[in-house]
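User: New here, any thoughts?
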Amino acid sequence: MRALSTWAAVLGLAISGVATLAHADDDRLSRFRELSHLLSDAGDAPVPVDPDAALAEMFALVDDEILENLKTGEPFASPAFIQERLDAFMAAWGGAAFRVHRAGRATDSPSLTVGVFTVPGSAPRGSLRGYGRTATGEWSVLATSTHDGVPELHPWPAGRDGTARIAVSWLGPGSGTGGRPFVLEVWRRTARGTMERAWTTSTPFPDGLWTLDFKVSPGQMTVRYEARYPGWKPGCDGQTEHVDVYRRDSHRDGLGLAARKVLNGWHRELQAAAARLVAALAVDEQGAVAALVPDRGLRARLPRHLVLEPACDQRSAGGLAIVAATEEDGARMVPWSLTWRLTPVGWRLRAATPVLE
């Protein structure tokens, strides 16, 4: 009889927990639907909508749902049970994605639950959320990170101390230049109950990274990207690209550059030579001009005030390339075609012709 009473008590608590969670879920889901309608109709709403504030509240509602389950304990705290709850939020707003994962091993202490959220739109936004117990034993959102683009969680080796590490990337929409905004972050769970960002692509790429291709494997990132430099021109083919391999440092949680392959390096070198010529002509540095233009007659015909144009450069057989420029002399604007040849000592100007001559 005592065993039966104990089982009944456990069952009663479980039923009570389900009822409590269901009621809270209904309230959150109702508000979630309201916010999704506001965000979907933001352009037509009679009252201006702050999309950032609405999105923050929406994410907070999902945070509350996950934390409520974690606080209740097993089986409600399991990723599979929590995901069932989150599926209702996804059904309320088509295109939204809310995924939950358990980082590290099930026996790890402190444990780490990770949420990866995506909201739809012409410019999708994604958020990483970390949940766990703090040093005082309270369940809490340990960290958040939100960027433009669709987030993806990647397997990552644990730290030297055995605590969980996670890697998450954000890939933004395509652009007219072919590159897509890309962010990768590595996060760590600490023994003292916090969650910290250990590395981000913003460190080696403070001005942003636009990838043409990438691959993330445990402890390594390979990324091919446009090497933007003076003279780089949006939408043109054959410009300089890098293929970088970053590997995890065995002594730290960050990544370091392990290898770099340069593709189409000729274009960056060509633009550097053209920029040196234009600058030397402007200040009449005869020595610098002579180094880039060996032909004396050609040097004499060059105007002093040339501006390089954003038109795509044309490369042809025989190591030749044509760069567009404009002569500026007061109100007089004359387009020029500058023909360069690649020699053993670098790019040298071979011909220069006014286009409308």
